[in-house]
Amino acid sequence: MTPNTNRSGASYATEARGPVRHYPLVLEGRTIGHLWAAVDEGEDAAGAVMVLTALDTEPRIGVASFWGKRLEQACGAGLTPLEALERLRKEREDPVGGGVPEGARPEEAPSKDALVAWANPGYTPPALPEGLGGEPRPSQLPRHPGPELVTRQVLKSYPRRTDQPVRYLPVRLGSVTVGLLWASVTGDAAGFVRNLDAQPESNFAEVWWLEEFVRLHERGLGPLEAIREHVGAPEHPVGGRLDPADEERTAASTAELAEIARG
Predict the structure, then answer these.
(1) Strands (E), the chain
(2) Which of 91, 108, 92 is nearest to 34 (CA)?
(3) C-alpha to C-alpha distance for 253 and 226, rounded to whole angstroms
(4) Cα 13 off chain centre by
(5) Strands ordered across the beta sheet of 176-184
(6) What is the spatial distance between Cα 243 and Cα 87, in angstroms, rounded to a whole number?
(7) Neighbouring residues of 239: CB distance < 8 A, sequence distance ≥ 6
(8) In a structure prediction context, what are the per-residue pLDDT tens digits for the chain, which is 263 residues long?
C-alpha cells in the first residue's frame, strides 16, 4: 500500500453521493457504527456512521471523534480513503472508539445516505426550513375558499455571511461542545459553526438554531440580541444551551471562527 503524497487536503470529505465500502464497528460485542470510504476515486471521502440507538450521546460523540481523528491522521499520511479504511480495520479495538471485528468482510452501500438509513431504520434527518435551503412548508395563512390563494410560506432569517468580526459563544449539549453560535459585531448576520467531532449531534443542533433564528428574526430581534436572549435558558435536547459562565468572545472573521471550532 503506497501512500499518495500528492494529497492536498488535511482531511477527507464527510459526504459521498456514490457507493461506499464499509465495515462494522464493534465495542464490547455491540455494533456501534460503520467505518466507510467512498469507492469512486473522484470522491475523496471517508467517515464513521453511528448506530444512533447503540450508545448514549456522549460516548457516541467520543466514538465519532476517535475515528474522525484516526481518519485525519490517515489522510495526513497520504492514504486514499480506501487505503485508510483497510489500514484502520486492522487496528485493535479501542476502549472508546471500538474497532472492526477480526474477519469482518467489507460490504458496499449505494451511498453514505443509504448506509445511514440501513444502520438506523426509520431515521429521518432533520430538514432545513425553506428560507434556509430546505423544502418549502405549507403556509400558515388563514383558510380561504379560493384555491388560487393557496401559497407557500417564505421564511426570513439573518444573513449567514459577513466580512466583519463576530461575537460568539459555545453551544453545549451535556458536557460536549457541539458548536459555536455567532453574530457579527455590526449586528447584521448570525450563524452556527459545527464541531465536526460532535456529529451527528452538531448537525441537529445547527438545524435547530437555524430554525430558531427564523423565529427570533420574526420577533424583530437583532442577531446579537437574539443570541444573548438564550444565555442561561434551559438546555434544549437538540439545540443545547448557552452557559452564563461562558465569556462572549470575538473572532476576526467567520474563517477564524471555523479554525477555533476545529480546535
Answers:
(1) 20-27, 30-38, 46-50, 107-109, 166-173, 176-184, 190-194, 249-251
(2) 108
(3) 20
(4) 12
(5) 190-194, 176-184, 166-173, 249-251
(6) 41
(7) 171, 205, 208, 209, 212
(8) 344 444 545 688 888 889 999 999 999 888 999 999 999 988 899 999 988 888 887 788 888 889 988 999 999 999 999 999 999 999 999 999 999 999 899 999 998 888 888 888 766 555 544 444 444 333 333 333 333 323 333 347 888 888 899 999 999 988 889 899 999 998 889 999 988 888 778 878 888 888 888 888 888 889 999 899 899 988 888 888 999 999 999 999 988 998 888 77
Q: Which three cell numbers stand for residue 42?
A: 473522484
What nine digits make up the cell of 233? 435558558
Residue type, 132: L
Distance CA 24, CA 98 (A): 10
What predicted TM-score, i.e. pTM, was given to this entire model?
Answer: 0.54
The cell for 222 is 437583532
